[in-house]
Amino acid sequence: MPVCPNCNYEYVEGVTICPDCNTALVDEKDLPKIEELSEKDWVLVYTSGDEYEVQMLKEVLESGGVEANVLSQKDRNFPAPGDFSIVKLFVRKSDLKQALNYIEDAKKNNSGPEENSEES
Ligand SMILES: [Zn+2]
Prior knowledge:
Helix content is 30%, strand content 22%. The protein is α+β, with helices and mostly antiparallel strands. The protein folds into 2 domains: 1-28, no CATH class; 32-110, Alpha-Beta Plaits (2-Layer Sandwich), CATH 3.30.70. The strands form 2 sheets. A 3-stranded antiparallel beta sheet has the order 3-5-4. It binds zinc ion (ZN). Zinc ion (ZN) binds at residues 4, 6-7, 18, 20-21, 23.
């Protein structure tokens, strides 16, 4: 998805120049926006080595109306052998409580067999 680095606005595929400011659009994944955002009003709510898991949580949050961002990166400070990457999930501070609730629920639902409530 092309994004204007100036306006932070997303455009449809095929657009290469921002109609608002004439800046060349960059690909969304080339934009270091999450690191910037995290210092302002974005908070880290979940970290995992499993990108699939984090993407799943992101979908859970978004289906609940909580905007979420995933940042996937190699952690060079972590001298693990092999291919170790950290996947981070960010939400807005104002959504933090709600996001943590959704994550907790999602983890419960996905943690395999659990004692069920006796009946309903
Ligand atoms: Zn622009």
